[in-house]
């Protein structure tokens, strides 16, 4: 399901796909889902960067929660900011009181009850457990877009929740006919 909630100048609900010209190596082949964007800056989470050291069963066990009898998704590195902070990006068919509605179909929360529901097998149908986030101050993201470090396209729930992580970077761009691996030959501005 495509997520076409981009309104006005806000990039909320869209993907930022790092281009081969990305000057910051920490974001090589990243797909960032923008959760909030306004005059005060922007905040997003990487949706294709599994954490090499942590697993969700380990996190649940460390929090004293049950480990459900089902396959759990990996833990993701959302970005370099506040790596000790945990977020759950989830399909909005699951209801919780404290959430940031990103689109009609995707929300973000830090509410512990959601993790407890996941541990009991009653959580959202689709979710990513994410440590850290990516943030930009006022005007910073817009400047990076002009410098062609990022390609901006509408977000797509199926890429976030259903695709293998290794395929997300290329697929996010390819949905618009863009081969991101040869993006240096195509220059555009946001």
From TrEMBL:
Cellular-component GO terms for this entry: cytosol
Stretches assigned to coiled coil: none
InterPro entries: AlgH-like (IPR003774)
Protein family: Belongs to the UPF0301 (AlgH) family.
Protein name stated in the entry: UPF0301 protein DGMP_15860
Organism per entry: Desulfomarina profundi
């Amino acid at each position: 399901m495509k997520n076409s909630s981009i309104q006005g100048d806000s990039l909320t609900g869209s993907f930022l796909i790092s281009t081969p010209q990305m000057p910051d190596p920490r974001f090589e082949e990243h797909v960032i889902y923008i959760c909030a964007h306004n005059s005060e800056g922007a905040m997003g989470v990487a949706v294709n960067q599994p954490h090499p050291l942590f697993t969700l069963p380990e996190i649940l066990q460390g929090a004293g929660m049950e480990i459900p009898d089902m396959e759990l998704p990996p833990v993701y590195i959302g970005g370099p900011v506040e790596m000790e902070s945990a977020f759950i990006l989830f399909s909005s068919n699951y209801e919780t009181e404290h959430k940031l509605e990103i689109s009609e179909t995707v929300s973000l929360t830090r509410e512990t009850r959601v993790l407890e529901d996941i541990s009991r097998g009653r959580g959202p149908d689709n979710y990513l457990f994410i440590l850290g986030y990516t943030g930009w101050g006022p005007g910073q993201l817009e400047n990076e877009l002009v410098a062609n470090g990022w390609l901006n396209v509408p977000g797509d729930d199926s890429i976030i929740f259903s695709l293998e992580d290794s395929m997300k970077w290329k697929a996010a761009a390819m949905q618009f006919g863009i081969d991101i691996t040869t993006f240096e030959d195509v220059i555009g501005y946001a």
